[in-house]
Amino acid sequence: MILTFAWRNLWRNKLRSVVIIAAFAVGIFAGIFFFAFTNGMVNSRVNAVIGTEMSHIQLHKTGFLENDQFSLRIKNVDRLLPQIKKLPEVKAVTDRMIVNSMIANHETGLGVQITGIDPVNEIQVTDLHSRIVEGKYIGKTDSDAVIISKRLAKRLKTKLGDEITITVQNNKNEIVERQFQITGMYETENMLFDDANIFARKVDLANLTGISGNEAHEVAVLLQNNQSTEAVTTELIKEFPDLEVKNWLQLSPESGALVGAMNEYTYIFTIIILLALSFGIVNTMLMVIMERVHEIGMLMAIGMKRLKVFLMIMAETVFLAVTGGIIGTLSGWLVSAYFGRAGINLYFWKEAFGEMGFSSMIYPTVDTTVIINNAILVFIAGLIASLYPAWKAVRLKPVDAIHTV
Amino acid sequence: MNIIEVRDLYKIYNEKLLPVNAINGINVNFETGEFTTIVGPSGSGKTTFLNILGGLDEPSRGDVIIDKVCINQLSESKKTDFRMKNIGFVFQSYNLIPVFTALENVEFIMQLQGQSKTERTSRAKELLIAVGLGDRLSSRPSELSGGQQQRVAVARALASRPKFILADEPTANLDSKSTENLLDIMEKLNEEEHVTFIFSTHDQRVVNKAKRVITIEDGRVVSDVRK
Questions:
Q1: Predicted ipTM?
Q2: Which domain holds residue B53?
């Protein structure tokens, strides 16, 4: 009956309760939508890091990551790749050559990193092929073909089908160069990546630099899911002790930090909202107590124990918070789910987002854990907000309260 | 048989600074089945006396013994429990719970006592019928007249089967017809069910119905007349 009593008491002043419930609902809605929005942004960045830029795990000769030394190559990749591929968590694996080079045309020249790829395996590991916006992806037999980004093409003032000269240092430390034809142009959300990376067949680069096709600077591993990243990293470290095995979180610590930081920011944001709303609820409940001094005195006079009065006020406060919380959570969830499909296109900030490596198309993503944690936070906020008004109520003396007009 | 024994009762407000003697040495007993009114001018100490009898206020000195239990020596929690089980209250301004129906208002105290739903609903209906509100079980206080609300309050006071009922100016807000009606019901309950009533009142109509009239002035019993 205390719960029925508390629930009915909530609706004694409908307008006041609706206002405070609406405030809570809007606050929780904002918290959930903000989280879904940032989560969508971070997910798109993480997906780009894994799907386009790095894959889940990379293996290099120790020291290569620090100084890009051409001579630090992994030998016998034809034996290494099947060994990695046989792990059940591994979806695909590919090897790459990575060479710092100069590219030039008749207009200008630029320093870039040229990645030699196996066009067939690369398709299974990264989504480079789906990022082609002009021309086509490199075919298995397209010799001396190169894919550059659209941004880079613009800077070079070059176009599809043009030839560019690629200059690299070979295995004898001699400078060598060759003409490559631009057969495709790609575009990612990350402008820094686009400015610095071009792709050619690994076999062409091996020919140009005079190394064996069975050597590589990098082996990239794509997993079935993100969750097994740490476990597979540990396993590969154990299996290939002479190689440097690093996952995307270690290769791109800023992306990992971003995920953690965004989560923390969201919770801080939610807690600040709840704190502000709790003050509103405390104020409302104190007004309620003041209005009902006489009634509370009567209840204690006829035998309602202080604990029950305390619980009744607590229940009223928690009902206010939880009702607002449920409405806010549902609306936040629905709106986020809608935009999760439709997307939010912040095209007017495309440049700024791109320079930070983010897509300007955001697909908010709702996380069930966040919904649950939000629900718990709302309940706790309601409980905490109820303590002071409930304490004020039980401090009333029945003899004084019943004579209060 | 004495249901209440009041021994050497004093209530002094502002004892240290500016003492005001609200109750000034009252010794009185109440028997089971009595229909008593406490009368006296405003400020004579009637309400303070009733509050102390009901365990709502503490005496400065003296004892109130109800059915062999000295209530002023009970802890706050035990006193609340004692009130719930032994004392029925009827207040001047009815004090019903506005969000409950008449039936729920009467049931409420029985629920506090832990009675089963069937038991309390049946008793609540029985009491509301007894006070003439059998057709208003589902009405909320705002849908009832003052007299009807006070009758619900009487039914509520009786619900816990208390040893006695304290009624502080129960007719002060009622018109004459409602007053007469309420007093008839209380008189009937007293005569047929032997319910003990103790009133504080200014209302001569209540005094006329009473079988015992105690007059208090300046915190002292100046007369105690049994009719």
A1: 0.89
A2: 2-226
